[in-house]
Structures are given as structure tokens and as C-alpha cells.
Amino acid sequence: MPTIVVDADACPVKREIVEIARAHAVPVLMVASHDHRLHAEEGVAIMQVDRSDQSVDLYIANHIRRGDIVVTQDFGLATIVIAKGAIALSQRGQEYDDSNIDYLMERRHELAKRRRGGGRTKGPKALTNEDRVRFQQKLTKVLVSRQENAEP
What we know:
- This is UPF0178 protein GT003_25070.
- It holds the Pfam family DUF188.
- InterPro entries: UPF0178.
- The protein is an alpha/beta fold.
- The protein has one domain: 3-Layer(aba) Sandwich (Rossmann fold), CATH 3.40.50.
- It has helices spanning 14-23, 55-63, 75-83, 101-116, 129-150; strands at 4-7, 28-33, 44-49, 69-71, 87-89, 95-96.
- The chain has a 6-stranded mixed β-sheet with strand order 3-2-1-4-5-6, with helices on both faces.
- Helix 1 packs parallel to helix 5 (129-150) and helix 3 (75-83) runs antiparallel to helix 4 (101-116).
- The chain is globular and about 50 Å long.
- The model has no long low-confidence stretch (mean pLDDT 87).
């Protein structure tokens, strides 16, 4: 059975993840630094790691298994997730995969170069209700597909 693993430091759809996971009887692991207060509840385990820059990403990368579902907005972590045979979803409902991750990483690199050179870049848009609905639909679709494929 897969686990939904959440890069929970800045994830705005934690409640939606928990509700969908419960409906499909799938466990959730929220991983966050000690700077964030998270509370374990039925079906939801919490792992808090130190506050250094990549601690959450490293914990997730070292503990996910093939078939897990990871919710993150970090393209670097998504690359590792894909390489390990897990599914990577953004909190807006985009699935990261081999067809788009190279472009996303290249774009991230170009924007970082621009910022280092003194240029300005826009941050991410605020999460909308449409984004939340798209995320819920995508996570549900992934879980239903996994359950259908697991049936004998």
C-alpha cells in the first residue's frame, strides 16, 4: 500500500490530503521542520526534522518507496521522487514526470541565475480555490488508479 508523503513545511493543502487519504484508507506521513507545528491524528504520522535547509527533502528522499505519492512544490525533490519510482504531485495538482521535470528544473535554474545577477522574478501565484479542486481531483484520480491496478 502506498503512503502519501507530504513536504509539509509550506503545504497549503494538508487538510485536503488527510480527507482524501482517509476516504481511500491510505496512510499519510507529514514531514516538516521543528519550526512548524503539526499534530498527529488518525491515519497521519508526523516526522519533524531539524530546520536546516534541505532536511525535509533529505528525509523524504531517504524514506520513500516505489509507489508512494509525494506532495511537494520542490522540483529537485520531485526529480528524486520520480527516479525512485514514486509519484510526485504539486499542491496545485500537477503531476511531475519525465515529460516535464527537465523543463521545470531548467526554468528554475534560469530564474535563479537571473536573481543572482540582480534581476527580479515573480514568486508563485497565490493558491486559488480552483487549484485546490484540481489538486483534490488529481490526488483522488491517482489513488483510484492505484487501487484499480492493485485489484487481482
